[in-house]
Amino acid sequence: MKTSPSAKSGSRTATAVQRYTRVAILLHWSIAVLILANVACGLTVALLPDGTLSDESMRWVIDTHKSIGITVLGLAFLRVLWRITQRPPPLPAEFPARERAAAHAVHIALYVLMFAMPVSGWLHDSAWVAAASHPMYLYGLFQWPRVGFIMNLDPATKNQLHDQFGALHTACSYVFYSMLALHVAGALKHQWIDGHSVLRRMIP
C-alpha cells in the first residue's frame, strides 16, 4: 500500500517539529539571558577604575552580579531535575556519530559549568575578608548567606582562598564562553549549512 504525498509530508513535519518541552525552553532561555546579563556586569566591574568598588554607590553592580549568579545556580538545578524526568527530543538521524558525540560533550560541559561558575563565585565571595561587614542581599530584597566555614577561617587563609576561588571562577567563565561559542556555532552550522531544523527544537 502506497503512502500518499500528503501523509509523507505530514510525517516529515511531525519529525521536524519535535522540540523541547515548554518548561525546558523557558529554563534554557532564562539561563541564557541571565548569563549574558552577568557577562555585562562582569565587564562593567572589570572596566571600573581601581577603588571604585569600595564606593557603596557602585556596590550594586557586584551585588547584581552575585544575585544573578545565585539565580542561575537555582535554575540550573531545576533544569537538571526537569531533564532527568523529561527526556529531550533526539538529535536528527542525519547527524554523523562524531557530531553527536561532540554535541553531547559540549552539553555536558555547559551543564557542569552552569554549576561551577556560580559555586566558585559564591566561595570567592565567602572568602572575602570584608564579607562579615558587607552582607550580600539577593536583588536587595533579603540577605543571602555566605559559606559559613570559609567565613570563619583566619584572615590570611581567607585571602589565599579568595584569590584561588577568584582564579577558578575566572577560568570557569572563559571555558564556559568557549563551550557556548561551540554550542552556538554548531547549532548555526546544522541549521544553515546542513539544513537540519535544530533551532526549532528550542524556539518557543
Q: Which overall shape is indicated by the principal axes computed on the Cα atoms?
A: elongated
List low-pLDDT spans.
Answer: 1-17
Give the number of helices. Answer: 6
Mean pLDDT comes to: 84
Order of helices and strands: HHHHEEHH
What structural class do helix, strand and pairing data support?
Answer: mainly alpha
Alpha carbon gap, first and last residue: 37 Å
Oligomer: single chain
**Gyration radius, to the nearest Å?**
21 Å
Number of strands: 2
- Taken as a percent bin, the fraction of beta residues is under 5%
Helix content: 55-70%
Give a quick account of the main beta sheet: strands, pairing sense, barrel closure. 2 strands, antiparallel
Strand order of the largest sheet: 1-2
Report on the architecture of this protein.
With 204 residues, this protein is mainly alpha-helical. Helices cover 68% and strands 3% of the residues. It contains six helices and two strands. It has helices at 5-16, 22-47, 59-85, 97-126, 148-151, 155-193; strands at residues 136-138, 142-144. A two-stranded antiparallel sheet has the order 1-2. Strand 1 and strand 2 form a beta hairpin. Helix 2 (22-47) packs antiparallel against helix 3 (59-85), helix 3 (59-85) packs across helix 4 (97-126) and helix 4 runs antiparallel to helix 6 (155-193). The two termini are 37 Å apart. The model is unreliable at 1-17 (pLDDT under 50).
